[in-house]
Amino acid sequence: MDTSTAVPFNAALASSAQRDGFDMPSLAAREIERLRARVRELSAELVDAQESVRRHVARELHDGVGAELTATRFALAGIETWLPADAPPQCAAALAVTNRSLDAVQAANRDAIAQLHAPSFETGLAGALQCWARDFSTRTGLRTTFTCSGDARLARLPADAALAVFRVAQEALNNVAKHARATCADLRVETGARHLRLLVSDDGIGPPRGARERGGLKKNGGHFGLAGMQARCAAFDGTLRISARRTSVGRGEDSGTGSNGAITPRGTLIQARFAWHVLLAAAPTPRAARRALQS
Question: Which helix H or strand E contains 81, and what residues bound it?
Answer without folding.
Answer: helix 66-82
